């Protein structure tokens, strides 16, 4: 595999990802229209907006599932190296640039145990340690050490998400909320710099949602990993996000702290399904209510 040149522009030290003028067209439909925003290091950034606003499309561009029609996605990755994500293949985005993701629908290996799911995520370093040879896998060279380290890491994550007692149970047998957290732990086992989560709270009950919030806060605090998430559950967004980006009809309509975004008339109008001309009226109503 050839390593792409590191010709990405330098970002400010506190900025992990810069999305510039991102546009994605599907035939005649512009799903994402000239969207720009930053993801700061160690921040939880939420991407919100009504159905069809373009959130998943932005996500798919950042994680390499789509190549943007227009736009630049600069990531200051591991070791301070810069990457232009739109020039990388999707496997390079995860392995070289350090971007991990989960999906709207859980994609664990249901027949494998919880522990095995976390080991599979560490396949790349294990293969490297094996020297890609049978002798390596049989225990010569650094493979045994790497395998022991992978098991330790997997166990540490199972402890952290409260599933160590279920390490040997098939992932499919775990309750839904546990599967969601296991999926996040699996993504974390790849040592990402950016963790992208597509609706992590979907289908969770309030207790499971609380556990998820705690896990994401600990990832921010203890691992220093930045999180970019799409979420419809506003209680999760408002509680854990440092930064919220709002899309509507493919365009960015607001960008700021949860508090600022919550009070932005354009956001309120978008969620209420109000036409553009009526935004000022909504604005006046909000000001009136706050007075
Ligand atoms: N692969 C595709 N081909 C054609 N149109 C697409 C494709 N992916 C998304 N779209 C369209 O792009 C627009 C934005 O879709 P997207 O899934 O990004 O929105 P979203 O904000 O994630 O919506 P939701 O909250 O419902 O998941 C929609 O009109 C959708 O139908």
Automatic annotation (TrEMBL):
GO cellular component: plasma membrane
Alphabetized GO MF terms: ATP binding; ATP hydrolysis activity; L-isoleucine transmembrane transporter activity; L-phenylalanine transmembrane transporter activity; L-valine transmembrane transporter activity
Keyword DNA repair annotated: no
UniProt entry keywords in alphabetical sequence: Amino-acid transport, ATP-binding, Nucleotide-binding, Transport
Pfam families: ABC_tran (PF00005), BCA_ABC_TP_C (PF12399)
InterPro entries registered for this protein in UniProt: AAA+_ATPase, ABC_AA/LPS_Transport, ABC_transporter-like_ATP-bd, BCA_ABC_TP_C, P-loop_NTPase
Annotated ranges, domain ABC transporter: 17-274
Keyword check for Transmembrane helix: no
Record-level GO BP terms: D-alanine transmembrane transport; L-alanine transport; L-isoleucine import across plasma membrane; L-valine import across plasma membrane
Gene3D superfamilies with a match to the protein in the record: P-loop containing nucleotide triphosphate hydrolases
UniProt xrefs under PANTHER family: CONSERVED COMPONENT OF ABC TRANSPORTER FOR NATURAL AMINO ACIDS-RELATED, HIGH-AFFINITY BRANCHED-CHAIN AMINO ACID TRANSPORT ATP-BINDING PROTEIN LIVG
Name of the protein in its database record: ABC transporter ATP-binding protein
The organism of origin for this protein: Chenggangzhangella methanolivorans
